[in-house]
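INFO worker-7 received task bundle
INFO bundle size: 2
INFO processing item 0
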Amino acid sequence: MNVAESRAVMLTRKKQLWATCHERDLAVRQVQDTLGQIDVTRQALQHAEADANAVAVANAAARDEWKALQKRNTQKKTVLEMAFNVQITNEQSCADLLERQAAAMQEDHEREHALDDQILDLTAQVKQSYEVLEQLRQDATRQAEDVHILEQTKKYAHLNEIMQWYIEMQALVTHLTGLRVLRVEASHFDVQVGDFELRMVMDPDSIKLQQVQVRSSKPNKVF
């Protein structure tokens, strides 16, 4: 083999090596982009978790306020009945309180739906990111056993565990609040609070609360 042929062979091998390096650089950049998307998704999950915790704290405060107000109203009613020997009602006070509670529960219900929609979007994004990452991992593994990519795959598995934990926390928050929307119609919606069911009758045009009906969810117990 003369010098010219040797030079041609070396030039060909150099081009092949350059092409291989270029393909690997592209694969590494794709992996980095995917990892960046996963990090953004993880941050979004953390924000959603913080929102869920804030909703739980607000619901707990609302329940404590409602219990304290009920206790004070009962004490005042008892004192007046004993002092004047009469039977009095507090329908207006109860109506005002129920109206405020209905508005708060409606806001909580809307926030819960928004969080559910956000969870669905984040789940779809994580699934899509996982599929892209899995494909890139397989391609990179065939080219070379890259330890860095394997570590990032482990990080994704941890992210998936965080997402599952967040979904479970959402279910726990709903369980702890004790509030559950049973039915939603055009003119009213029913909410279960412990052993009681509240029917909130709304004006369809003004969306203003017109009437609140309270009944026990247990048989033989009517209010």
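INFO item 0 finished
INFO processing item 1
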Amino acid sequence: MSDSNPLSNIKGEINRLGFVSGEKISLLSHFAENAEKIAVAVSCLDDFDTDEDKRSYLRSLISPPSREQELKRRFDEISFKIDEMNREFKRELKRIRFTADAWYSAIGTHTKTKKGKFVKERGVEILFPLGLTESLKSKSPGKFLQPPNMDKDTRFSPLLDTDFVFIPSDYPLDPLSVIAIGEIKKRVSGSFSNADIGHVISFGEKILQLQPRRSYVYVVLTDCIIINIYRVNRNENHSEEYTQFTYNYIKSEYLTYNTQASLTHNTRASLTHDTQASPSRGWRYLVTIIESSPERLGWVEPSLKFGEETVKLVRSIGVGKTSVVYEGIYKDISVAVKMIKKANYLSCVERERAVLEELSELGSPHIPKILFYDENTLVMTPLGVKVNNLRKTDIKNIITTLKHVHSYEYVHRDLRKYNFLRNLDDSKESILIIDWGFSTKNREDTAFAGALECMPDEVLESLTNEEDIVYGPKVDLICFVRSFYLMLHKPSMERVAFDRDGDIRKLAQMMLNFWKDRSKSDVWDNIYQAIEGLDYDKLIQELERFF
């Protein structure tokens, strides 16, 4: 086959070898669809000595795969999908941890290195504030009666992710149960780096954010030779948007029980003479923390009193800009407990309470109901679970509920995926619309709130042009439709929350560009026409076409 054109060569061989018309069509179709394989096929044909071998080779290319080959192909496909799911899970877990860090990091310290440097330079040294333990005798090493399960690993809790924690006996591994926390790091040149100090301090800040009633928390940084102890304190400055913190530190001490025998010359030189004269002081510090009552270490019992009624907090289930949400138990009923982080967010809980109390007149199973409240807490029922996709029945329930809400002149403003939950205690597993703290009255001129990725073009354009935003029912309907689109198609995009730092004009323009080339079809045109006319029934019909 001397022709310089591989396609001509392969066609010539197929004709010369005398294939019947059906085989010839299949072969030509095969190479038309797999042009990159032609050169390889030509080379292989040159290696065969007989025409029979060449015919067998070409027939093998169009023969249906054997059962073994088909099973292998399907196995490979499944393996690839599993690998992709694992990669996606790791990416999502990393994103969650990164987001958690971003939520809780102290303002003005954008990196852990800067935070550690700030603590070293601006933190206040204090004496160890707890009475030292009298337990001075070393005990033989203990051992677990049963090996710890994987669900006991702090690394499997994105909101913890520290090396070790102190929790009360028989309490679950949850941020709500954490009394004190610790991190193990290697020292460099005899001291811990600024990044390591900032890293462990950030864990203390997280705990104070997740336990809003708590004033301070102790954090431990050690390499199992030297121990550093810090106290992170809540500083409620109501003029600031974010919770601020102050920091105390206690002078580094030896941790090892038999210190002098195990320390290197450089390690001894890094500590003072007084420290060396009390070699077990760091060990006593750690044992004191272990032996201290939770309350002595600043922990607050996770329960709330409302008159004669008690609500027990079980675990933290969500964190937002303004509040922390917990699962609670009241008379054996699971409830949602929403606690405001800072006093300057009280208006949010007041607004949500007022809205939910007024909307309770609807008797809707799709709107939470308030059981108890005080100035910074709401206890609501039912307790829902997150949803990843909507069901056909959800479409009618959500839009009909919005129609009734809009008749009360309220606009939710934040109808993103994360504000839809499912009530599994209901036989119908009803959908819930939550987070009414940023809702506003129809046509009320107010500051922007909501998730940028779901906002209608009019709101995004107003943000881009720095114009006033007036909210109406159409905002809710478009927010819901775009949330539905994102759940349905799952495009690759970063969720941009309304409280994110940065140039909101630039972010709004990004979202305008994102939606410009999407949802362009007759179906979507009909959807937006229904929204424009506030035709709730037609909108239900159009969205139900997707099921």
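INFO item 1 finished
INFO post-check item 1: Residues 67-104 form the longest helix (38 residues).
INFO post-check item 1: Confidence is low (pLDDT under 50) at residues 95-109, 273-279, 497-501.
INFO worker-7 idle
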